[in-house]
């Protein structure tokens, strides 16, 4: 038996055929920790940002889309950006887990999410195949682009959490973006301020960008909040002429 990657308790449930294929199975975490992770059901989420629609006020939902995403669509700022997929709801437990991961440098926690991230990645690829028309449906090739930290923040933290999460998936990773400045703390702004698009803090990494042309891009980050970061990243990637840009995050917050 192994210890839980988060709380250190013995995991208690040996690997079995059943839990290996159960959707809530997150190897590495004990049952009590897993029960506190609340997965977002992909069948009942906003088709654009991946949030759970059942938790949202009815009048904020239009045809499977939340009101934030309707605003984004109307803003004309989506560009090549298609949608986001998120694994879990933000709750106090996950907040504590993310603190331990990001701010106390416990990168092993990412291993506990490998199975779910990989499963979500496969689902995204599968959905793309389904959306294709014609008889010869080709499996699309995705390139993962971790949302970067500024060099100051990277130095301070020692790792980029988005990069660590991306490496769990096992698909090709391209460091196509550079973050040229940090944002003021998002939590200090109100929602309207956070949704307003600033000038992009991202630049294209010209060397890496040559490989993006015609490819489907999957941005990877730990959390999707207002969606502004994703649009800004997509905007910076656009000159490299990718086919389309989607994102996958651990959390919808
Ligand atoms: Zn635990
Ligand atoms: Zn939405």
Automatic annotation (TrEMBL):
Gene3D superfamilies the record matches: 3.40.50.2020
- Fetch the SUPFAM superfamilies from UniProt: PRTase-like (SSF53271)
- Cross-referenced InterPro entries: ComF/GntX_DNA_util-trans, PRTase-like, PRTase_dom
**Superkingdom per UniProt:** Bacteria
Residue span(s) of domain Phosphoribosyltransferase:
155-251
Q: Which Pfam families match?
A: Pribosyltran
- Family per UniProt? Belongs to the ComF/GntX family.
Query: What is this protein identified as?
Result: Phosphoribosyltransferase domain-containing protein
- Organism taxonomic ancestry: Bacteria, Bacillati, Bacillota, Bacilli, Bacillales
């Amino acid at each position: 038996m192994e210890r839980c990657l988060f709380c250190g308790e013995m995991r208690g449930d040996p690997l079995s055929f059943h839990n290996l294929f159960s959707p809530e199975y997150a190897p590495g975490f004990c049952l009590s920790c897993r029960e506190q992770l609340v997965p977002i059901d992909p069948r009942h989420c906003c088709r654009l940002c991946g949030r759970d629609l059942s938790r949202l006020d009815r009048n904020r939902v239009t045809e499977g889309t939340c009101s934030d995403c309707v605003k984004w669509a109307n803003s004309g700022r989506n560009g090549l950006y298609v949608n986001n997929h998120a694994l879990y709801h933000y709750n106090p437990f996950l907040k504590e887990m993310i603190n331990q991961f990001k701010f106390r440098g416990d990168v092993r926690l990412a291993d506990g999410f490998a199975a779910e991230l990989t499963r979500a990645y496969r689902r995204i690829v599968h959905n793309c195949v389904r959306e294709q028309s014609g008889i010869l449906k080709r499996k699309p090739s995705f390139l993962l682009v971790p949302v970067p930290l500024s060099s100051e923040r990277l130095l301070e933290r020692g790792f980029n959490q988005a990069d660590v999460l991306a490496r769990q998936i096992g698909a090709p990773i391209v460091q196509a973006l550079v973050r040229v400045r940090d944002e003021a703390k998002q939590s200090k702004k109100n929602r309207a301020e956070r949704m307003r698009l600033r000038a992009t803090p991202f630049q294209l990494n010209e060397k890496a960008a040559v490989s993006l042309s015609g490819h489907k891009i999957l941005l990877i980050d730990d959390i999707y909040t207002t969606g502004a970061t994703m649009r800004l990243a997509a905007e910076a990637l656009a000159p490299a002429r990718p086919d389309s840009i989607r994102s996958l995050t651990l959390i919808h917050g």
